[in-house]
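Task: complex structure prediction.
Instruction: return structure tokens for all chains below.
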Amino acid sequence: MYKIAVMGGADTVLGFKALGLDTHPVSGDDEARRVFRKLANPEEKYAIIYMEERLSRVLAEEVAEFNDKTMPAVILIPGRDGSMGLGLTALHDAVIRAVGADIL
Amino acid sequence: MASKTISPTRMELTRLKTRLKTARRGHKLLKDKRDELMRQFLEIVRRNRDLRARVDEGLSGANRALSVASAIMSSDMLEQALLYPRQRVELDMTFRNIMSVNVPVYEFKTQAVDPSDIYPYGFAQTSGELDDAIAAMSGVFSDMFELAQVEKTMQLLADEIEKTRRRVNALEYVMIPDMEKNIKYISMKLEENDRSTKVRLMKVKDMVLEQAHGYN
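Output:
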């Protein structure tokens, strides 16, 4: 059985708790990095990590490491401050990798 | 490749010819694989884009409602209200094979007593906006799972397409032309050897005839 994590600012992850997901509020870059490393460990059995898109700036390298792996899937979600449109970066990156140019 | 290092023998020629045949076949197969992967990939990209728009919109709505709720309620109250979730989510992961790429398929089960009763708090001390936020979130819930699945699939396919494309290009522009060049080199060399042997024989024949009978 696999688990699903949500990490982000305390007010962003709050609502997901009610849905029964494992929430990991983080504040500060170092804490975010540490929490992500812990969650991404395959032994933790997190299949999906929903991450507030604000954090993807800080954790870009760490996240890219898991792009080719089946587990975990790191999915960016908009934070409390509204969508920054970073969620589409994964899409554009994948298209550039596969096609060689951003055709979208 | 260095055509200088290969030995111009018939054995090498046969070996190269079989290798070329295999390479051509492999090239064709890989090219077909790449085309099919690309078709599936673009389909998934399109699906991803739709889901992303839906999830972004749904979550933004939920966040707006949550912001209002947190403005009305004190943060302690809000936290208390959401402290113990009513539902648990269990996720099962199986794999699907798309052109030899193993992509995850998520299956989730929610353990809620009643699907309409997901609110983990009493209504007396919480604001209605909180209900709206939770409802909006559980509304995009299944879309979020599908988004995760589709996005992971997209990433894995992109990786495989990149690899396959490199292989196709390496075969098409390096391996196959090299082998063709080498085959040409060997067959030319062999023909040249044939000719020089023939000329030598003719010369020897002339010399022998002249010695034996005195004519040329």
